[in-house]
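Can't paste images in this forum, so I'm doing it all in text. The chain is below; anyone willing to post the predicted structure tokens underneath?
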Amino acid sequence: MKILIVTGGDVEPAFAAGFLKTYGASYVIAVDGGLEAAEALGLMPDAVVGDFDTVSAEVFARYQKIGIHIEIHKPEKDCTDTELALLYALSLPEVSQIVILGGLGRRFDHAMGNVQILFHALKRKVPCCMVDFYNRISLLDGVLEIEKSRIWGRYISLIPFTEQVKGVTLTGFKYPLTKAALTFGNSLGISNELLEERGRIEVEEGVLVYIESRD
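Text version of the structure:
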């Protein structure tokens, strides 16, 4: 089951509409203010999660009447609404992929927090990423094969998620690496590019933030 989580961050309508045609979600979760974004995109959520402090009362009331699954949380909580939505998604049966739309907006604290919560999916070995027009972000702890024709943009960046990432080997890249160590406090992995049609990233120990981006 392919799941789409629509959050309350910036959702660029033209990009989102095009992306939805190619993704083909089978289950949609709207997160608080993301309910309005989902409605604008013509999506009918299967579930709505949040403390509902940003969605309009009128919109929320309308969906309450429909009878879809709604999880209401108190504003004073230990998790963000997006994390709660991701945990709910991971509790569903036969989850094959999760995409978070709107997780990268003007609130940099929320964007950083959303990168952190991707670790829940990584631990469960469920492919999960955040996307907007400029970026596709996920976590990587093993081997990844990529194709130039299918990446998000020109640039590929690798940033340590754990304090040290050992045995990083890049094949097919402009700046190759062989069993390198990427650590907190350096920018060695920023703005690489594929030279070949296919590339390979290998990580022996640790976790990387994997970012495909375009200007």
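Residues 116 and 161 are 8 Å apart (CA to CA). The first strand starts at residue 2 and ends at 6.
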